[in-house]
Write a structure and sequence with these properties.
The chain is mainly beta. The chain has four domains: about 120 residues, Immunoglobulin-like (Sandwich), CATH 2.60.40.3500; about 100 residues, Immunoglobulin-like (Sandwich), CATH 2.60.40; about 110 residues, Immunoglobulin-like; about 180 residues, Aminopeptidase, CATH 3.40.630.40. It has eight helices and 43 strands. Helix 3 crosses helix 8 and helix 5 packs across helix 8.
Length: about 625
């Protein structure tokens, strides 16, 4: 809900003290000092690194939340016991630095330091690696210098005339995006008999340049390599081949509305259809605290497991059910087994993808007879799985706790804040000159989650508007990026952000559209008031109608019409701008919907479809 105070008051002090969007920090530079075994890096915004030591093989993993790297994966090899480092975009909100130690060597975590010189300048200090001999680490001399193997140069594919041109392949948080030009592409996917090659065949197309850019960070998607080939003839084809493990999931292709092809593994959320077609479900389950914890219960009906996800921000595994179910746990060797009963696997539920640092090596879902669902977890080395938590009757969580390593070592690395400065547990001061992503020829959509930080927005029935709209906004961000749209979030966490900076971000980004997402409220004495409202001012009417109609076509919710309003963020933005009220926290019907992660995913997809239709 839009606060009347925020609509009427805007002071200069408020502009100066509001927070920096989480996406604004950029890495400016870095260098590795081999003589001192230290990596130095700097950013243009305040950051708070998180670091840990991962074993088998030994590597230091440093995550920079709210930071972006404006270039492809950077990787450099060395010749000593510190073999290489790489810097890449782990997801839309996190830059990851990985420092690899030579095989057979280890590090003492207590001697690894991530030290802040200032809040924008940091160093990762490494001790001399220790040789692992019979399970004991001993001081090591650097191995003989090894010249890193050079990657073979990609062969220049022939250029042919074709109605469709393939110009680039780049990675996204969930898969790959193939940028094309010309006529809409026709795509077919084949997998080899040994299941190690996935071939994407683009009919009547050519590779649009001698060497199209290929992502260097595709390894995070389980891809071992990507190659291209041009087939000539009367019907030329551009071929993109993905080399994968034989146990990797299949991939599917969807033609985007913005000059490209979305490629996603089938174990990930499917892309949203730009024309309102059937879409896949998402297993990104935010933890909920709207109801008090309770023990496992059963209603006598069979519960359906609807989604499984790893919450990396709080290191826990989340299980979403459609109703309560009894559960039991047991230890089977190194595996942890949780059984739900009576329960069944949902038709579209998938095991979540596993990345480095997730604290799990495997998640296996199995239907054991008609009444039992088994969730088998293989934890990573040095990880314990805690007792089952029940945030609400339909959500279970399993804490993934890192334990002590042999010899008193822990995998957690000490992060030392700058001397004389407090740790960065609060958002930094807003910088009006912060650098925004450079235009790349794609539509730019600014998504604005309402309220934030000390301003919770509407509150009622155990719900907070700021948490609901941030979840919906993050999913809109992901769905649009899958379709090749460039998205900028005004905030990506619980930050105190005033109104004018939200407008400034949209204006400086030269956004195509601005979409502010809220949840409504009225007196608790009026639970009969339910439904969605969409507001616009001036040029935003068409966008408002497109989003509003998309929601009503996809979701069973009340219609409180498209309306004109003079909200600050609508009348101060020059591009088409709308404010979407996604339901009433105080409503007898809407309160249950807004508390349901599945509903919020549906709402995010509907909003995304409306934006895509308008941009078409």
């Amino acid at each position: 809900m839009v606060s009347k105070i925020h609509l009427l008051l805007l002071s200069t002090l408020g502009v100066l003290l509001c927070s920096l969007p989480a996406e604004a920090a950029r890495i400016l530079g870095w260098r590795f000092n081999e003589a001192q075994n230290r990596l130095e890096f700097s950013t243009d915004g305040n950051v708070q690194p998180r670091a840990q030591l991962v074993f088998n093989p030994t590597r230091v993993v440093v995550d920079l939340p709210g930071t972006r790297l404006d270039k492809p994966l950077v990787q450099e090899s060395m010749t000593g016991t510190i073999r290489s480092y790489r810097i890449g975009q782990f997801d839309a909100e996190t830059t990851r630095i990985v420092i690899e130690v030579a095989k057979g060597y280890s590090l003492d975590p207590s001697k690894v330091k991530v030290r802040g010189l200032t809040q924008k300048q940091w160093v990762v200090e490494l001790p001399e690696p220790m040789r692992e001999a019979g399970g004991t680490a001993v001081a090591a001399q650097p191995p003989a210098a090894v010249t890193p193997a050079k990657q073979p140069l990609a062969q220049s594919p022939p250029l042919v005339d074709a109605p469709t041109q393939v110009n680039e392949v780049r990675s996204t948080p969930d898969g790959l995006f193939v940028r094309v030009a010309g006529e809409p592409p026709r795509v077919k996917i084949k997998r080899s008999r040994d299941r190690r090659t996935i071939e994407v065949q683009i009919r009547n197309s050519s590779l649009g340049s001698a060497q199209i850019p290929l992502p260097s960070d595709a390894g995070k998607l389980g891809i071992q390599s990507i190659t291209t080939e041009q087939k000539k003839g009367s019907r030329p084809e551009a071929i993109i081949r993905l080399q994968v493990d034989s146990n990797a999931p299949n991939w599917k292709a969807t033609v985007s509305n913005f000059g490209g092809i979305v490629l996603l593994p089938t174990s990930r959320p499917e892309p949203i259809a730009g024309s309102g077609g059937r879409t896949g479900s998402s297993a990104q389950l935010p933890p909920s605290s709207s109801q008090a914890p309770t023990s496992g219960t059963s209603t006598g009906q069979v519960a359906t497991l609807q989604g499984v996800a790893i919450d990396r921000s709080s290191n826990q595994l989340l299980l979403q059910l459609d109703r309560p179910a009894r559960y039991s746990t047991r230890q089977d060797g190194s595996d942890y087994v949780l059984t739900l009963s009576p329960a069944r696997l949902g038709a579209r539920v998938k095991e979540p993808p596993i990345y480095v640092g997730d604290r799990l090596r495997r998640v296996k879902l199995t239907q054991r007879g008609p009444q039992n669902v088994e969730i088998r977890l293989t934890p990573d080395r040095g990880v314990n799985i805690g007792e089952v938590q029940v945030p609400n009757l339909k959500l279970l969580s399993l804490p993934l706790q890192r334990s002590r390593q042999p010899g008193g070592k822990t995998g957690q690395i000490n992060v030392i804040p700058p001397a004389g400065r407090p740790n960065i547990n609060r958002p930094p001061v807003f910088d009006p000159n912060i650098q925004l992503p450079a235009p790349n020829g794609r539509p730019v959509v600014v998504i604005d989650p309402g309220h934030g930080g000390p301003d919770p927005g509407a509150v009622g029935n155990g719900l907070k508007e700021t948490e609901i709209v941030l979840d919906i906004s993050r999913q809109v961000n992901r769905f649009l990026e899958q379709q090749g749209v460039q998205v900028i979030m005004t905030r990506n966490g619980e930050y105190d952000l005033d109104l004018q900076p939200r407008v400034d971000i949209a204006e400086r980004a030269n956004a195509s559209v601005f979409v502010s997402i809220h949840a409504n409220a009225i007196s608790l004495a009026r639970p009969d008031v339910n439904g969605i409202e969409t507001y616009y001012y001036s040029s935003g009417k068409g966008l408002a109608q497109s989003i509003h109609q998309s929601i009503l076509q996809s979701i069973d919710i009340g219609d409180r019409r498209v309306r004109s309003a003079r909200f600050y963020v609508l009348r101060r933005t020059s591009m088409p701008a709308v404010l979407v009220e996604t339901g009433f926290i105080t409503g007898a019907e809407d309160k249950f919907k807004l508390a349901d992660p599945a509903f919020r995913t549906q709402m995010a997809k509907a909003i995304s479809r409306g934006i895509l239709r308008y941009l078409q």
